[in-house]
Amino acid sequence: MTDEGTGISSSPALSANGLGKRFGSRVAFDDVSFEIGYGEVFGFLGPNGAGKTTTVRTLGTLLTPTAGSATVAGLPLIPDNGVEIRRRISIMPESPGLYLRLTVLENLQCFADLYEVSAARDRIDQALQAVHLTERAHDTCGSLSKGLKQRVALARALLNDPQVLFLDEPTSGLDPVAAREVHELIDGLRQRGVTIFLTTHRLDEAERLCDRVAILNTTLRTVGRPDQLRDELFARTLNVRTVSPLSNPADVFLGVESVSGWREDGPSTYVLTVTDPALAAPGVTRALVKADADVLSISVSHHSLEDVYLELIDVPAGLS
Ligand SMILES: Nc1ncnc2c1ncn2[C@@H]1O[C@H](COP(=O)(O)OP(=O)(O)OP(=O)(O)O)[C@@H](O)[C@H]1O
């Protein structure tokens, strides 16, 4: 569905409603619901065995769901739509699955034939350019590093110019430089308006790349923007350190705009719960100066997506 005049689609690129998949008595994932807009980069996080790959394979029409419903690239996920959905999407699996004795170009030609890509040579050239591999087109895939193989797999996933791209752990096993290159490629795809469904164990990756993330552990634990999840789960705090203990901290802190509580966190260290750190910090500074306190530092505490993840996933005792 397209909004008149704007050309922008108003229906979600991907949606799931109570979606589930079980293998016999084993539940791979259950009761998963979300909506993803066109052009969004959506992170799908969860521990080993959480059901991420099975969700991707189900949305990618490779497995049939056992519960719920979904739409993929604007089409209901039903067997009759399988061919058309596969035409509109691509899946880049965790392992590249290339023919190692064939060159990069031959691999792409092979897959372009398989996918019946029209104007194949142009699409291959565009895909090679998108992943910066034009120079390596005639190298055999067996001679490429893991990071370069991953780029070939990404080029293959781009051959059909997908509306929705599923990336299953695209940086698994890559060194930081190769991972950063993949991140830059994903950024480039986002700028071209490709909707990306990204499964990853790397929380820094999700935080850097994703507009929103979902945390899955067989069922969905939460969906939201990383900063929104942090704010929902953790109170905002200011950390104040002074040279010597304050004689009456309550008198100093309470009454400052935006400060709703305080506690001591060791000698001369105070943690203040605040509604808005940007408002609270200058007020607290003024109050400390007025009380003649020698201030060592005032800092806003930052929670990472990892904190959110660990809070929501049941981590076995002793591991957190
Ligand atoms: N074909 C299958 N037959 C039976 N069980 C399966 C099958 N595929 C997956 N499972 C089970 O479904 C659950 C979810 O697996 P899945 O591979 O989707 O998890 P994941 O989140 O992708 O894990 P990882 O991060 O380790 O790749 C696991 O318990 C797994 O053993």
UniProtKB/TrEMBL annotation:
InterPro entries: AAA+_ATPase (IPR003593), ABC_transporter-like_ATP-bd (IPR003439), ABC_transporter_ATP-binding (IPR050763), P-loop_NTPase (IPR027417). It is a peripheral membrane protein. Residues 14-242 form the ABC transporter domain. GO terms for cellular component: plasma membrane. The keyword Transit peptide does not apply. Keywords: Antibiotic resistance, ATP-binding, Nucleotide-binding, Transport. One of its GO terms (molecular function) is ATP binding. It comes from the Bacteria. It is found in: Cell membrane. Its main location: membrane. GO terms for biological process: response to antibiotic. It holds the Pfam family ABC_tran. Belongs to the ABC transporter superfamily. This is ABC-2 type transport system ATP-binding protein.
